[in-house]
Amino acid sequence: MIDIRQLRYFVAVAETLHFGRAAERLHVTQPPLSRQVAALEQELGVRLIERHSRRAVLTPAGARFLEDARQIIAALDRACRDARAWQSGDLGELTIGFMMHAAYSSVPLLTRRFATAHPDVTLHLRETLPMMLADGVMEGRFDAAIGFDPGTRRGLATSPLYREPLAAVVPSDHHLASASALTPDQLAGERFILSPADVTPTLRRAILGWLAAPPAILLETQLQQTIVSLVGEGLGVAIVPESLRRLAMTSVRFVPLIDAPMVEQLLMVRPDARNPALTHLRAIADSLQPA
Amino acid sequence: MIDIRQLRYFVAVAETLHFGRAAERLHVTQPPLSRQVAALEQELGVRLIERHSRRAVLTPAGARFLEDARQIIAALDRACRDARAWQSGDLGELTIGFMMHAAYSSVPLLTRRFATAHPDVTLHLRETLPMMLADGVMEGRFDAAIGFDPGTRRGLATSPLYREPLAAVVPSDHHLASASALTPDQLAGERFILSPADVTPTLRRAILGWLAAPPAILLETQLQQTIVSLVGEGLGVAIVPESLRRLAMTSVRFVPLIDAPMVEQLLMVRPDARNPALTHLRAIADSLQPA
DNA sequence: CCAATTTACGGCCCTCGTAAGCATT
DNA sequence: AATGCTTACGAGGGCCGTAAATTGG
């Protein structure tokens, strides 16, 4: 069977057109070189080199095969390098799922840092409903996920990624719109827009805990962006992560909360994950550690 | 050193995800297979396959390396096939030099037939002054050349390719323009345009042989097309191969000659030429043999 | 006669296959 | 207990290197 070594030997002879020099370059003696090249020609059934007494000449088929052999050798070397790079995590792909409003906070931070440090790792970013994040990681659709604590963390390893206060969001013509900071009492009696309990349990618990009395719930919707948009339409008020301010909607005002509860986005990873680039991602996440 | 066989073994395991089945497919027993894959991983320094009791799983690096390994194996197989095809002349390149006015006669005939019969051989056509053809072949710039007998055929093998009569070409307003056929006497006294003796000795000999008396030579130029063009400009008359008629110039008329001398285009090849596609070219040339 | 490659031959390493070991389900 | 991969070990083959033969200028 044809062997990479035979290709390397042939290339050396084809490049020097001299069996002696080629053998020297390969750190072998001439006889094995002659035999291997002859064996290669035999297996191919093609004469690659014409041997004359004082010189060797490539046949047309040999010239063509030289090109191919060079490319094959280069491809093999490259494949070996890539495999090592992949193993080290310097080369590869990472698929990251994240809840959509993380696009306004942790995702740009994390991906910018990561892409700069590891330019040869391709990032696949997948916006996802928060409830799908943990399952996506567990089932291997994502290498990592960014979201709030899913509560039922079935064996997921997590790193804190981004910590921020909650803030009230009210229509810009609301009577509280220009308040400097709000207490739970001031929001009593308002109609609230929330995301469902099964979608963001941690966030919802933080909101309801800060509000002493259970609020009147007008409606529920899954995405924080949608909540802010509905507030802008005058349908009610809401408490959302402060980073949603970056939506820059003119129809709403963000108002800080007195003793605002903090919410934390986590990077979720399977502890047995095999993608080496993940270690780099976790290192970056740890370096972003909120104070 | 990494070996093609190791790549083949690895691909088999990666595709079956089962060392036993892979060994069966490769017609070897498991132990060598395990060892070779382990050796490959060892040499790469990369874990490619995670062995679990009941199943094997590719690591990300392994998945990537599988793609590369497949491509390398395919490239090698293709290179072997190409080398054999090249040797047989079914694949390759042919560089053919030809005197320029052969573009109106033998070249289209020959190249059309050849390209149809051997579509994987790339033809490089090089228009050349007739005097450069034989040298070009001898010095290896052309695999073959098409032209008149160069006289001094220093070891060139030739095949007759295209045989045609000479014809007179006169300005369309010339008093002989509508003659049905001409004798040497009728052209006596005309001023002739010829190609130089060192450029087309055979052609010139045929012309001077047919004209009983030496003509008055107005001027000489190398290309037959130029000769026809100058005749069209009213500078004189000429005798050229009949196929030049295909120039379709309205300012000249071609008039047959009584007992017209025939000239023959030859395919010239070095007898020791190494390009296998040449045998196909010569076979086509022989099948075009003028009657 | 010299340069360069191929052929001859002995020693060694490497690989294969059989058989035993080991781990996981 | 059974499946499936790895390790152990002896036999065989292939490859390397030294040395001799061959080919061509």
Automatic annotation (TrEMBL), chains A, B:
GO terms for molecular function: DNA binding; DNA-binding transcription factor activity. Keywords: DNA-binding, Transcription, Transcription regulation. SUPFAM superfamilies: Periplasmic binding protein-like II, Winged helix' DNA-binding domain. One of its GO terms (cellular component) is protein-DNA complex. Belongs to the LysR transcriptional regulatory family. Pfam families: HTH_1, LysR_substrate. InterPro entries: LysR_HTH_N (IPR000847), LysR_subst-bd (IPR005119), WH-like_DNA-bd_sf (IPR036388), WH_DNA-bd_sf (IPR036390). Gene3D superfamilies: Periplasmic binding protein-like II (3.40.190.10), Winged helix-like DNA-binding domain superfamily/Winged helix DNA-binding domain (1.10.10.10). Residues 2-59 form the HTH lysR-type domain. Transmembrane segments: none annotated. This is HTH lysR-type domain-containing protein. The keyword Transcription applies.
